[in-house]
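User: Could you check the structure of this?
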Amino acid sequence: MQVPVRDASGEAGSIQVISDEPAREGVWTHLLGTIDQSEDTAKLYVDGVKQTDTGNVAEAAAVEGPLVVGAGGVGAQSVRPWIGAIDDLRVWDRKVFDDGTDDRGDPYKLASVPALEGRWKLDEAEGTVASDASDRRLDGTLEGDPAAVWSGELNDQTFTDAAAFSGVERIITEEPAVRTDRSFSVAAWARPDDAEKAASVVAQTDKAGTGMKLGTAVVDGRMRWVVTMRDGSTVTSAYSERTPLAGEWEHVAGVYDFARGELVLYVDGVEAAMEEIESSGHTDAPFVIGGTSADGGDGAWIGGIDDVHAYRGVLSKSQVHSIEMGFLP
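Assistant: Sure, the predicted structure tokens are below.
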């Protein structure tokens, strides 16, 4: 962030506040800059996290002229033209609320607002395409027998059609649904028919296992619901205390909160577990419904899956409950 200032002699100049990490090409990033005249500081937030560098703006300079989006300056004076996309620009005549202790202040809330990246209702009757109901249109391709998957499975909690999986079928998108190195949320209705087999309802992992998965796992000798994040050799998992019931539909959701460093599991709209997470890596792998990876292997789901959601950002408890009830947050 570049801020105009004046030195002791009144000469106009500027200072820069630099992010801790390099900018990433082709990746949506939330930026927030604020000037606090009570502290004479300029601060920069990246994806809701305050950066280490700050600027001294004891003599901030007032600048006349229009607000320009996508470049510095106007007309013949325009410099540094932006190449890429810009969205949801906001300007305030005050500093944002952030007292240094409450990371649920304005920077956190603005960077963590959930945005729908995909919704697969799984109510098809035939064919190999699982349609994405979101504006993104990230349709999935069914690998398996359509007649078996679209066999008239019923979610008896929502009374909607669902997909049936026997451990050999998967639905795979052509590209990732979310970035796993920043805040995201996934949710789905799931019915395990094999309560003794670890499996993934949804996942986005590469061959090394880096990424995320939401499903079931054996912990301390019994099955649990789990959301797992893996970054290289670092694995973080949040497990439910309650064992999934074979043949019963339950709503499960996993939320990764980058700014707070938390991985949260919800079961039937209730927070079932939360674990602190120190690092996360992005896996540029397809989003898989009914399995762990696009290459097959372990983790294939046996049972029903219905109404899968994927979001950029952080779903709150109330928003998870809304999704469970069939409403978008």
